[in-house]
Design goal:
246 residues, Rossmann fold, 2 domains, six-stranded parallel beta sheet, 6 strands, 11% strand
């Protein structure tokens, strides 16, 4: 890949871009549902898992109205677990729901599997570019994920939507990332997996988007011109860095 002239910054999305957090989420869900079933006789771990997926998807789709007022990830998780238990006709004391939410988060972090190719590639990238992360998540959790993946040390800045009070697909979050770095958006590549949150938002914010498309997808509409597409971040960096060395 030959980057646009003047490119000086690589801004990475985190979940499902730098880190396969989806697999870690599913692993943590299975562990936590089994723990909940042990605490509530008659509760099916499988039914609770299905309920939690549905509840979580619904709540995050209504983030501004429902979840934003809760302010923290732990409060959001407690709310979601309470809703999922209720959907299964089960109830646990608030203290046990909090333990489930805490255990779920710990299991997610423990399940993160670093991509062993990335540290060397990121080190090479830092020789030529400034490197940052921009995520919709909470700052402390996002940094913990990056640390677990062995990537936090490469990040000059980590800009997070829950801390900033604005989330992608609003392009304002990416603009703020550029402001924190004191760079013009046009000098940045934004590398992300989500068509709306990353590719469209980056285009509207003035950054140059790079799509990490892990599977064949046809969900894009009115795509920006010439969007580069790679199945994984390592492939993108492999393509970018030879151009950087010339």
């Amino acid at each position: 890949m030959t980057p646009p002239p003047g490119t000086a910054v690589l801004v990475f999305d985190v979940d499902q871009t730098l880190i396969d957090t989806g697999a870690a989420w599913e692993h943590a869900l299975a562990i936590t549902c089994a723990r909940a079933a042990d605490a509530a006789p008659g509760l099916s771990a499988g039914d609770l898992g299905s309920a939690y997926r549905a509840v979580s998807g619904d709540l995050w789709s209504r983030y501004d109205d429902v979840l934003a007022p809760l302010a923290t990830v732990i409060a959001i998780r407690e709310h979601a677990w309470g809703q999922a238990l209720a959907a299964c006709g089960a109830a646990l004391p608030a203290s046990q729901v909090r333990l489930l939410a805490t255990a779920f988060g710990a299991a997610q972090l423990a399940a993160i599997r670093p991509d062993l190719r990335l540290p060397a590639l990121m080190a090479r990238a830092r020789e030529r570019y400034r490197v940052a992360a921009c995520s919709n998540g909470e700052g402390s959790l996002t940094r913990a994920k990056l640390r677990a993946a062995g990537l936090l040390r490469f990040m000059e800045a980590v800009t997070c939507g829950m801390d900033e009070g604005v989330r992608k697909p609003d392009p304002e979050l990416l603009r703020r990332c550029c402001q924190h770095l004191a760079v013009a958006p046009g000098t940045c590549l934004h590398i992300g997996d989500d068509w709306g949150n990353d590719i469209i938002a980056a285009s509207h914010a003035g950054l140059h988007p790079v799509w990490i498309c892990r599977a064949s997808r046809d969900d894009q509409s009115t795509p920006p011109p010439a969007v580069a597409r790679y199945p994984a971040v390592a492939g993108f960096l492999d393509a970018l860095l030879p151009a950087a060395r010339r």
